[in-house]
Amino acid sequence: MDFQRRRQGSRGLLAVAAALVAWAGVHAGEVRAAPLTPPQQPPELPLEQLTVAALPAPDAYRLYLSDPTMGHLVDGRLHVIDARGMRYLGLLGTGFAGSSTLSRDRQSILVASTYHSRLQRGTRSDVVEVYGTKDLAFQYEIEIPAKHVQSLPMRTLMGTSNDGRFLFIQNATPATSVSVVDLHARKFVEEIPTPGCYGAIAWPDQARRFSSVCGDGRLATFELDEQGVLKQRSVSEPFFDPDKDPIFAHYQWSGSRLTFVSYRGQVHELDLRGTAPVALKPWGLTDAAAAKQGWRPGGYQLFALDSRSGRLYVGMHDKGSEGSHKNPAKEIWVFDSQTQRRIGRLPGQGAIGMALSHEDKPSLFVLSAMENRLLSFALSERPPLARLLHRSEPVGETPVYMEMQ
């Protein structure tokens, strides 16, 4: 009885299993019978066409910002900015500790730099590279002696003669000299020794003359012949005391008047209209109260001079001491250089550099060390004397020097 029941139960289970197998087979067949549809291929994308956008024409708001990239000095850069709205336009490589300046006609960017065959070692090669301001395109290069000074960019390291023919480049091995380059003939002309003196300051009204500041407080002047070869050297009387109050390497022109500022806040001016420099009586940036508070100039490109209005803008910091001469500005002081009086005080913006645009009503541009930002100010005759217009995004890594188109 129990055995028969088991046989009947087994037959029922077998029937169910057979039915499931039959169902699976039928449906599997249906699946196998379904035709496979090949995936649709997406349409082929058109080839991308590379184009080069034309730069806006250089104008008074074109700004060139030198950045030696201190973390990797072999890869210096020159950032090109449209300072009207702080629009980034492009950059040029400036090699190892390169210096740059614009040609007299403002059509070319001149870069004096050093390159090594193995990047940071190997055979050294020093060149002057020439780029167009219109499109930043490389044009040509000129080989120069492998003595080009390797320093933070500053105005005193390079200068072009008044007629645009000669380029003067500071050397240091550490012996000091100046390389003379003929830009018209595209060749190196001569190396002129400048022992004890530093800088290549081209005279504004003399096509064959440049000067260097000497360690004894004098100004050495070098006169060239038509081929750019040294013809005559002369030295002025001392116009500052380097032991008590040295001057910054940065300088500014007002016509033929050359202006320097000292560490303790004295303004030194030299008249270069004649055959030899004539030092004018220095005047101070601080009164007794400001001097007691330790106010001193500081920065790299620390002052700007508007030759039209005679206004002098200087980055200043308080509690100054030995070694504080590179401190960023706590305030920017505004002076009337004709009356030699301070006429305003502006927020310092942490400035280490400043420049004025070349136009009838110039704008003031400030390089802030706090975030590597550029700030532009509209200037006025009445207080507050300067109104903030634009503040850029951070630019570069370690920018230190500006030049306006």
UniProtKB/TrEMBL annotation:
Keywords: Electron transport, Oxidoreductase, Periplasm, Signal, Transport. It is found in: Periplasm. InterPro entries: Metamine_DH_Hvc, Quino_amine_DH_bsu, WD40/YVTN_repeat-like_dom_sf. Pfam families: Me-amine-dh_H. Belongs to the aromatic amine dehydrogenase heavy chain family. This is Amine dehydrogenase large subunit.
